[in-house]
Structure formats: structure tokens, C-alpha cells
Amino acid sequence: MHTDYVFLNGEVITVDCQNGIAEAVAVKENRIVAVGSTEEIKQFIGEKTSVIDLQGRSLLPGFIDSHLHILAYGIDKLGVSCKEPHIQSLQDILNDLRAKALELSKGKCVRAWGFNESKIIEQRYPTRDELDEISTEHPIIVVRACNHISAVNSKALEMLGITKDTPNPKGGIIERDDQGEATGRLFENAHFQATKAFPFSEEDLRRALAMASADYVSAGITSVHDAGTNDSDSFRVMQQAARSGLVKVRIYAMVCAMDNPEEFIKNMMAAGITTGVGDERFKIGPAKLFTDGSSSGPTIATRKPYTSNPEDYGILYYTQEEVNRILGEAHQKGFQITAHAQGDRAIEMVLNCIEEAMTKYPSSNARHRIEHAGVTEPDLLARMKKLGVVPIPNPPFFYEYGDGYIKNYGDRVNHMYPLRDFFDNEVIAAAGSDSPVTDYRPLFGIHVAVNRKSKQGTEVGGNQRVSVMEAIRAYTWNGAYASFEEDIKGSIEVGKLADLVVLDGSIMRSDLTSIADLSVEMTMINGELVYQAAKLNQEKITEV
Fold first, then answer.
1. Which of 93, 131, 444, 517 is buried deepest, with most CB atoms within 10 A?
2. In the chain, how long is the greatest CA-to-CA distance?
3. Cα gap 47→32, rounded to integer Å
4. In 375-530, where does DSSP find H-type helix?
5. C-alpha span between 145 and 103 (Å, rounded)
6. How far apart (Å, rounded) are the C-alpha atoms in residues 66 and 484?
7. Residue 222 in contact with residue 251, Cβ under 8 Å?
8. How far is it, in rounded angstroms, from Cα 296 to Cα 17?
9. Residue 416, helix vs strand vs coil
10. Long-range contacts of 351-356 (CB under 8 A, 24+ apart)
11. Half-sphere exposure for 354 (CA within 13 Å, toward CB)
């Protein structure tokens, strides 16, 4: 049998049950048909076979990011980025917002994303008055990097209907000054309602999705677990974009709206839709709620007060009874269930819910998840194992937010996103970036999981470091397991989908401190080359 592609002379990291490393792979149509030595695989070369000489480079299963927001990332690219290298001060951000406002017609929303008060000289948020100086004819919203907090101008407050008498929404806070007037800072559900209030056109949504997909495949990502959109229209556009091929990455879509997720879940259940509906391009994932806030905000719900503030225990969105009712019914109707749960108090609530749901309606293979599972103390870890829960930690967070974690949570950093504990206790954990909250590159995430250091070089819970192979597994096979798809992807084995990524060097022979310096040379999805680095020369791809 002659195949379409043959990869030879490489470091083929199979991520099979034995973590085997081979030399070569053959691909026909959209499947892997052979894995073995270079000499064994040469027999699959025919007249029309594209032969790729890896020259010792790594070939891995396509990376699976098990928690990100593809549409939010793409939408952000249409706005002002507060993460650009030239952003050093609040004035830099205000200047960029002013320039963006001049590009937009009156009434159009001016957005900025990736804001982090700890990264700028002033160490504070922009005020409502400062944003009003830019424009009172455009609503302006500056979204914090965690995507749980924003600062808005007076026009935005007016359009949101927020006055001195407006009560806090459930699970959210409208910050007020001493006179009771809204300052412009919105937390949690108040923030989510604001982001939903200024919608984009379907053309903008499709454009955003295409840009996001292009960036993701350039980083070797072949599958994503989308963690929620703004509304049902966005969900529909995302599904259509995946099915049409506008979006190249495969999508496992959580049933979650950023504002009022319980209503979205209810509507999906009423339509008779459950987890697993769809195909290999787009599939319905778990029903998801938000239970607490942001780890970097900080607004997560904790059992003990913050180290930085003995009066602060964070924000909870729901009562235990509400979580049990909403997600319990979804479990009963056939959904995999999950929840954003960062603090140990929130994680405990979700575990209580899963335990009750599984007791009432037993399931042998539910694979219920917990998104983030930020502060997973040993007692919570034991319950996860007993219940077969799949946690979704976020290794890249430590680089960008690690120093703040130490400040706000103290010794609890030793149990934050604890990949080492998950592996040691045979709890299958799948890694996600939470893009656009932080860097989406899986190679960067692997680097941070292995080193556990912040941008400032501070060790953050170094006891939770994992090996390179373990980190790769968290971004491949474990991600496939989290979506019930380990039989078709997540490893390089005969019969599985040809979702592959080629690096520009050997990840197993790289120095542990320089893994992030590796780059992706090629990404294949469904047997199709969807990305090739410009530096990839023709000697590596030859027609035989």
C-alpha cells in the first residue's frame, strides 16, 4: 500500500500506553496507517507519496487545548491589546484606545483586552473619567486579562442601564464610590453582562474565528475544547465555521454562555441535545456553569481567607442547591457536566454536586470535569479520584500570574493546578491555556508545567513539576480522554486520525529551561497540511 505522506528519521513521540518513541509514520487519506522504524515505513512510499525527512525532529500527536475560548480570542484580535510590548503605562493603553475610537463610527464599542494592573507603572485600573476623556460617544470597555473584570466609561454604563439604584447582579459586583455612584469597574457576572451587551456582527464573528484558528494551528493545536461563548448565536456561528472548514481546528464545545449559562443549558436540554452529538469536526461537549471567580483577580472562592486579605473569601455565583439542581439535571439528561471552579470552596461544591448526581443516577463512564481546579487540596484530590472526575488545569497561568498567586494564596500555591499530584494519584488531567487569558502555545504550556516558574523567575509550587512526557500527555491523550475521543486521537497509533505536529527540533533532547524556544514547523489535521512555517525548506518535503 502506497500512502499520501511518510515521515522518516524522526523522534516520533507516540503517547501510546507505553510512551513509546518510534522513527517513522505513514499517513493515507485522514488516518495513520503505520508506525515504526524508518526502514519499515519506507515500504509505503510510492510515486505520489510526499516524503518528509524529519532529520531527528520531533513528531507528536496534534496538541489538544482542553480549555480555551476560541471566539473570545479572535474577537480580542479586533480590539486593543494591552499585552503588546509597547504597553508600559496606563497612558499607553489610553493612547491606543483613543486611536481605535477614531477608526470607529459613533456608537461602536471600543474594546481593550489583556489588561493587568500589576504589569503597568501606575498599578491601577483606568477610571471612568479617564475613559470618558477618550470618548463619550463610544462605549469603552477594558477587559482584565482574566476576563472576569472590566473597566468601562459612562457611555457603556448608560447603555447597560447601570445607575446609582441598579442592584448588583447575582454572582457579580458593580463597584461604587463613597456616594454610591458606579465607578465603572465591573466584576464577574456584572462584567459578563457588559461583554454580552455590545455584540458583533456575524461577519465579524466569522472573521474572528478564522483568525483564531490560524493562530492555533500555527502553534500545533489540532483540537480545542471551547469553554463558552456569549450566546446561542455565537455558538451557532462557531459550529457553522467548523463544519464549513473556515475553522481548521476540531471543536468540542461546552454548553455555556458567559452570561446566564443555566438558561443556555436549559434550552439545549429542551432541544434534546446532549454531550457527544456531532462529528469529528464539531461536537457538543459538557454542560458548564461558573461557580466562582478569577485566580488572578483575585475573586476565587476559598475555604480559608486570602493570604493577602484576611476578610476576603472570594465570590460564589450559586448556592450548593442551585449547582446540584442545574448540573444534576444535565447529568440526568445525558450530559457530561463541568464547572469553572478555581478556589477549593468552589471545587468542593462541584464535587458535592457530582457525588449527589452519580448517587441518584449512576453512570459507569460519566467523565465529569472541573475546569481549572485551581486550589486542589489533598482531600479534594481524593474525591476527584473516587468520582472519576477529569480536572482541567492551566499550566501557563504560573508564568503570567505566579507571583500574584504567592501573594494572595501563600502556601496554597503548592496545591494549585497540581499536575504532579494528578499524575501520582492516577487522576487523568487534561491541560488548557484558557486563551485569551494567557498564552495559547502548548509548547509554552509544557515548558511552564515542567519548570513552574513565573516571568520573574520565581518558583511557584515547584513540588508540582512534571516530566516532559507527562506534560505532553496532558496536552494530547488526556485531552482526547476528556472528550471521550481517545479511540480516534491523542496519540500516534494505527487507525487514529492523522492530526500531527512537527517541531523544529527534539523536545526530548532539549534543555528543560528552553522548551519554550522550540517552534512548530508543520501542523496536519485530518491528513491535510494546514500550516507550514515559512522557514520550512523544500529539502524536508520531496515528491518521490
1. 131
2. 79
3. 19
4. 378-387, 397-409, 419-424, 442-451, 468-474, 477-482
5. 24
6. 12
7. no
8. 36
9. strand
10. 351/380, 351/383, 351/384, 351/387, 351/389, 352/320, 352/323, 352/324, 353/320, 353/323, 353/324, 353/327, 353/328, 354/327, 354/387, 354/389, 355/383, 355/387, 356/324, 356/328
11. 32
508 with 13: CB under 8 angstroms? yes
Buried/exposed code over 315-343 (b: 16+ C-beta within 10 A; e: otherwise)? bbbbeeebbbebbbbbbebbbbbbbbbbb
113 vs 253: CA distance, rounded Å: 23
More confident residue, 35 or 1: 35
pLDDT of residue 424: 98
- Locate 65 and state its grid cell: 487545548
391: preceding bond cis by omega (within 30 degrees): no
Nearest C-alpha neighbor of 301 from the set 356, 372, 354: 372
344 Cβ contact list (under 8 Å, min separation 6): 302, 303, 374, 375, 376, 377, 380, 412
The reported pTM is 0.90
Give the three cell numbers for residue 468. 516532559
At a CB cut-off of 8 Å and minimum separation 6, what does 532 contact? 521, 522
Of the CA atoms within 13 Å of residue 404, those in its CB half-sphere come to: 17
- At 464, which amino acid appears? Q
Nearest to 354 by CA among 392, 383, 379: 383
Written in H, E and C, the secondary structure of 281-339 is CEEEEEEEEECECCCCCCCCCCCCCECCECCCCCCECCCHHHHHHHHHHHHHCCCCEEE
pLDDT digits (tens, 9 = 90+) for 126-148: 999 999 999 999 999 999 988 88
In sequence order, the β-bridge partners of residue 282 are: 251
First CA to last CA distance, the chain: 15
Is residue 215 over pLDDT 80?
A: yes
Burial environment of residue 204 by CB neighbours within 10 A (0 to 12, 13 to 18, 19 or more)? middle
In whole angstroms, what is the distance from residue 544 CA to residue 120 CA? 55
Identify residue 286 by its one-letter amino acid code.
Answer: P
How far apart are the C-alpha atoms of 269 and 333, rounded to whole Å?
A: 7
Q: Model confidence over 176-202: pLDDT tens digits? A: 999 999 999 999 989 988 887 887 889
Going by pLDDT thresholds of 50, 70 and 90, the confidence category of residue 535 is low
- pLDDT, one tens digit per residue, over 58-107 is 999 999 999 999 999 999 888 899 999 999 999 999 999 999 999 988 88
Instruction: Give the amino acid at 186.
Output: L
